[in-house]
Amino acid sequence: MLFRVAVFSLSLALFAPPLLAAEAKKTPLTPVSTTAAPISTAPVSTLAVAQTTAPADLPEKGIDSGLPLPRFVSLAAEKVNARTGPGSRYPIAWQYQRRGLPVEVVAEYEYWRRIRDHDGTETWVHKNLTSGKRYAVVDGGVRSLYRKPDVDTDVLLTAETGVQARLRKCPDAMWCQVEIAGTKGWMPRNSLWGLYPGEVFD
């Protein structure tokens, strides 16, 4: 399933806030033969089974990074090959084509991270292709970006599901300050995918 990335040309309409649309974020590549370069490692097969469980069933910290599991990160490159297993000899399932796309790390194996995207797709990427910079995507339909954390203030723009937002701060359980296409404002946190309920940061 594809969803769309924000375009940065804003509407020139005088009496309505601009609407940001979105375009494809990932592209399926030609499947690689499953007979090529088999890899057999017991820890990998054990880990693969663990991925069918809910995030709450995963370890609290990654055994390789020592960081919390699960956790949100973002993609650190414009093009990221997402593989079916934790190694460069596993077939490429997708190629993500959006730097800063938020993804959820749900497992680790050496230099590889199993990620889950907004669509629920799970694949493996190299840890060097992820970043601790926090982003989110608009979720649940067309959403408004407000001048202040109050729905009675001016609407700066509206954005469709899948539009990418840089998370600046989420000081409470209701609102996050974000930046979309160079415009800073406030959005209700339930309009965003890429952070956990109750997660607060400045």
Polypeptide structure, described:
The chain has one helix at 42-50; strands at residues 19-20, 26-28, 71-75, 80-83, 92-96, 102-109, 112-116, 122-126, 130-131, 135-138, 143-146, 155-159, 164-169, 175-180, 183-188, 192-193. By secondary structure, it is mostly beta strands. It has 2 domains: 1-28 and 135-196, SH3 type barrels, CATH 2.30.30.40; 59-133, Roll (SH3 type barrels), CATH 2.30.30.40. The strands form 4 sheets. A 5-stranded antiparallel β-sheet has the order 8-7-6-3-9, covered by helices on one side. The longest helix is centred in the first third of the chain and has 9 residues, at 42-50.
Please describe the structure with a list of short key phrases separated by commas or semicolons:
single chain, disordered N terminus, 4% helix, SH3 type barrels, 1 helix, 2 domains, 5-stranded antiparallel sheet, 202 residues, 16 strands, mainly beta
Helix-strand layout with pairing:
Blueprint lengths: L18 E2 L5 E3 L13 H9 L20 E5 L4 E4 L8 E5 L5 E8 L2 E5 L5 E5 L3 E2 L3 E4 L4 E4 L8 E5 L4 E6 L5 E6 L2 E6 L3 E2 L9
C-alpha Rg, in Å?
Answer: 18 Å
Q: Work out the count of structural domains.
A: 2
Q: List the total number of helices.
A: 1
Q: Calculate the terminal CA-CA distance, rounded to whole Å.
A: 33 Å
CATH class of the largest domain: Mainly Beta
Biggest beta sheet attributes: 5 strands, antiparallel
Beta fraction of the residues? 35-45%
Any low-confidence stretches, pLDDT <50, length ≥5?
1-15, 30-59
Short description:
The protein is mainly beta and 202 residues long.
